[in-house]
Amino acid sequence: MIRYELLATDGAARRGRLHSARGTVETPVFMPVGTAASVKTLEPRDLEAMGARVILANTYHLFLRPGHALIEKLGGLHRFMAWSGLTLTDSGGFQVFSLGERSEKAGGGGPKPGPGLVTIAEEGVTFRSHLDGSRQFLSPERATEIQLALGADVIMAFDECPPSLAGRAYHEQSLARTQRWLERCRHAWVQGSARRAQAGLTPSALFGIAQGGLHADLRARAIEEAAALDLPGYALGGYAVGETPAAMWEGVARDAPRLPPAKPRYLMGVGTPEDLLAGVAAGIDMFDCVLPTRTARNGLLFTSRGRVNIKNARFTEDERPLDEACGCHTCRTHTRAYLRHLFRADELTGLRLNSIHNVHYFLALMAGAREAIQAGRYEAFRRAQREGWEAGLDG
Prior knowledge:
- By secondary structure, the chain is α/β, with parallel strands linked by helices.
- It folds into two domains: 3-288, Alpha-Beta Barrel (TIM Barrel); 296-387, no CATH class.
- It has 15 helices and 16 strands.
- Strands 4-14-13-12-11-10-6-5 form an eight-stranded parallel beta sheet.
- The longest helix has 31 residues, at 168-198.
- The chain starts with a strand and ends with a helix.
């Protein structure tokens, strides 16, 4: 089971530890995303060398391929991907409802139940696989069962994630259903955990998710009702899904302190380095995002001096490391000119080196935040990071 230990605070920012059967995780922490049980272009040993302690896997994708039953038969997610750290699986809800957003819209509302890619009912959600078009079904019980079979250390409740700018009426309807689903997830988790304990398997911790869009009262209600279930941890979902960064930062700053203080706080699917620092300032402990690996594959790199598009011709003869303040393998070993050449030549090595740098940068940013909170100088650290980004690569 996951247990949170608070070590220090600086304003609302928190420095803590997550204790689990697989070891300790220092927080605040960034968790790289391994959608199909793989952080794209990186091996588990790369992640371990960079100091990653938790990685995500995607329930929706693993359910469709290769199937949770196969992964369970082969020893669970950790053994399947040869990862010794912690794993966190999302419920698949975000991916399922994203299909609905692409298929139909209810005028000014949200995803429209109906005969398209997604049909929402109280029992659960019927959808068509993006792989072969086959009809599939996920419910709170089914999503929890799949995650328990995968053997993740942290599993997420099955929820609906409406666009943040959807109408209030839709958010109210969706939130009420999500809260009912959370109770069903908890029941399925308690029953499934008892069976796993009898089999001598590592326990999983269920995190509840509070939705509500940008509506302060709906968020407050969601957090209060979820907290009443006394789960091992809690997450804010439904941010970075259409609103401006400023609106997101304002909402997270308002909502994060409402989450139970003795439990870990997780901001799902967020985000940029600026987003992470804003989340830390609000009291968030855990972050995940595909951004560092996705942008790396597109040639966009994050540095202490701002963002770099390595495709630019200005780097053709540049013999300096990408980021002279970075200690990652890419920056210690290779030049900007080489990274540009690899990308322009469509060499897979370039995507790997870019990903190593970006993931390392996000992990190091959180390590710096932890040190700053412990020392009582978090806002000075955050200000110094912003000044570096504004100065630019050659500033």
